[in-house]
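Quick check before the chapter quiz. The format below is the same one you will see on the exam, so make sure you can read both the input and the output lines.
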Amino acid sequence: MLHSYIIELKYAKGKDSDEKVEQLRQEAITQANRYAASETVQKAIGTTTLHKIIVVYQGMKMVVCEEV
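Here is the expected output.
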């Protein structure tokens, strides 16, 4: 196996503001980075390349999907 992934999902209500979506995006980045730095994950990934993916949905629409 060459790659490992952390995928962090966040959900906003359809009526939530763009500011709320950005807040959730920042929370997802922080959480993915915290997970990636943990000893458990570092041992589990071994020599694979770790990809941290964050996804934010607003209602039924995916508004953020990026690798950090």
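If your answer matched, good. Strands lie at 3-12, 49-58, 61-67.
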